[in-house]
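User: My advisor asked me to double-check a structure prediction for ABC transporter permease before group meeting. I don't want to rely on an old file, so could you generate it fresh from this sequence?
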Amino acid sequence: MSTTTPETPGTPGTRTKELPRLGVGRLTLRNLAAYRRRIAGLMVAVLLGTAFLSGALILSDTLKSSVTGLIRDNGAGTDVVVRNATDVTDQPGTSRAGIPAGVADAVRGVPGVAAAEPVVVGYGQLVGKDGDMLTGNGPRLAGNWIGDPALNPYKLANGHAPRTADEVVVDRASAKQGHLKVGDRITVLTPAPVPVTVVGIATFGDADAFGGSSYTAFSLDGARAHIARDPGQVTSVSVRLNGQPDKAAQESAAAAIQRVLPPGVQATPGSEATQEQVDAVSDGFLTIFRTFLSAFAAIALVVAAFSINHTFSVVTAQRMRQAALLRALGASRRQIRAQALAEALVIGVTASLLGLAAGAGLAVGLKELFSAFGFAFPISGMTFRGQVAVIVLPVGIVVTLVSALVPAVRGSRVAPIAALRSTAAEDAGIPRRRTVGGSVLSAAGIAVAATGSAAWVFGIGALLCLAGVLMVAPVVVRFLGGLLTAPFARLGAGPMLARGNVLRSPRRTAGAATAMVVGIAVVTVVAIFAASLKQGAEGETRDTVTGDFVVATSTAGWASSGHSPELTRRIGRLPGVDAVVGMQRGNALVDGASKQVMAVDTGRLDRVLDLGLDAGTATGLGPDQIAVADSVASDRGWRVGTAVPVVYPDGARASLTLAGIYTRTTVTGDYLIDRQAWAPHSVADVDAMAVVGLADGAAAKQVKAEITKAAAAYGNPPVRDRDAYIDASLAMVDQFVTVVYVLLALALLIALGGIANTLALAAHERRRELGLLRAIGAERGQVRASLRWESAFVAVLGALTGLALGAFLAWAAVGVLAGDQPVPYRVPAGQLAILLASGALGGLLAGTRPAARAAKQDILGAVSAP
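Assistant: Sure, here is a fresh prediction for ABC transporter permease from the sequence you gave:
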């Protein structure tokens, strides 16, 4: 029988008894209550990060629910869809080529068919009474009014259905925008201008419109005359079956209908056709949008994690004596760790719950933010799924616990003997192994990021760089901080004291600035990368467009429009015009893959465009020829003379000969064919833009006036000179970058919150020092100034480090992500200067409250503090 002899706690080689009554939970609650102000700062960081994630997921789910709901409502009454069998694109909102109009009569004779309505859908841009186009955030559609109420998702709110070819029904949203009423005489561009009379106003179910799109309904004869490319064809046939058919009945009916259809026409169950559209939207735009917002939520959480980690580190350092006393009383390391992690758990759970709730409000704010920049979403209300809580709560809790883990372990290793002596809360030294390790990681990251040729390689290099920079940050603080703050020390006692505090503990200063480094680095990468791509696109567009004017419809939000080829032809006949080239976008299967192609009047191409030919020619292409970008030719191994298989939207197949390879793609895209080859097979005859070249000696101002006059009958599409066109084409980039900046601002707010929290902790730790300063004559204003200056110094040091890191990573990113296209590296000095100034100002503001509280403390109480 053996006995265990109690050993002195902390003695090497011995086991320490745990205090049997040391309640970890009770101690945790007492510490949370005692340090509630510090805890509040930690909770705010977690709350903001989880709120962003929650808001992003809620907005994404709401948008998906709304859009897919609209799609399902649109096809709710259709049991079978009869359409062209050829599908050349999975892009939502695009129509297939037409089918013979007589198909509807054949379908009506199939047993079980209650109704078969021909459907014509195409381009239809409403022009208001003032002569300008009515724009929106969706496609501009026109078609025929469907008489069967079960097959028509639109319902008349006012007026009657169209009866003649020049009567139309418009959606209520467009009527409100254009102040239209029954009886008004307006124009519809189909794309040719068609004068019509508004005889009815309709709603899409209970909504004013189908999302952000517009809809103009003609009679069937009017739609076939004005919208269909061929009056003998319709877009599809919507079929309603007898009774209430389920999915199996729809499939059976589709098979029966298929037997009476001509080759190239297919019958698809209505549920399947609807699901195809839902999948196209979900797998495309909605997935990209969700990923986009989630990326910013991840950035906010990473910044929050650094802020939490540093705050816990400072708190742990300040509690070393408390931990040592507990160890001396018999507490084990496990209990010390458990107590610290229990605090983190309480903070993580509470803040994550609050963040989950706040996400609903943030989702509304994000929706309004996008609307303010022209990206309005067709949603009302918010959708909350339980899956959001399943994602947000664990993420917030895990981030908090992981951030607190290292400080908790460090705090548990304190020796009990430390309770008997007074020591600094934190070692001011910089371990050599940390400096060496950080230098090695930084060098490795620089090498990988600079030489990598793939995005994932660049990502690894960026992470190595970030880790290395954060490890060597104390050294940077000691040297860069000394140089930066030296001139300010001469401005008075406040800056001088702040400089001493910043340099006295470089590890703490670096830790406080870490979140700022990450946030500023991300913003810098975005700013430089966007500026570089914008300059590259601007330079390439300027080199490509050699014509004098461009006629292109303005883009509003995510909707784009066009104009009639008739306008392009009219411009070509104007005096002073040497050449005009119209360009039309479409989709086709090129070498088996869906691609966007540009159909161009290539006979006059070289007069207004310079595509930077690498081989062959792109001018005067025949109906059996194609030109492609050099990146495409390189990837596919194509050369001039290669046979390229193409399937057109109507199902026609062709083998086109590669006639030219070009390098400039910003205007024409990657695939270029002549309009002679495209015209017989296209779905919509709409010019996306037209480039105009003037004859020698022509008066540019006069010719522009004539073009503008001609365009008035076609909805007044803007007529811009080359510089104005380039500015307009890049406007969307500026809007997008502004949205990104606003989203990243939350990460910077979290970083500033971390600085404020650290400063409050530092003021509490130095209360005796501050009390002595007050006792020897320092004024409250000088104490406040010293802490505000210290906050500003920390913020600027973090911002400068982040700017340097971000500038390098942006340089590497431009080289990797730009691919084969040469993109200039541009540093937007003005934007980065504003970013640095904002960081400094934010640092001053972050230090205001901690400084005010420190200056108000009682002198005697502060001097007598331990």
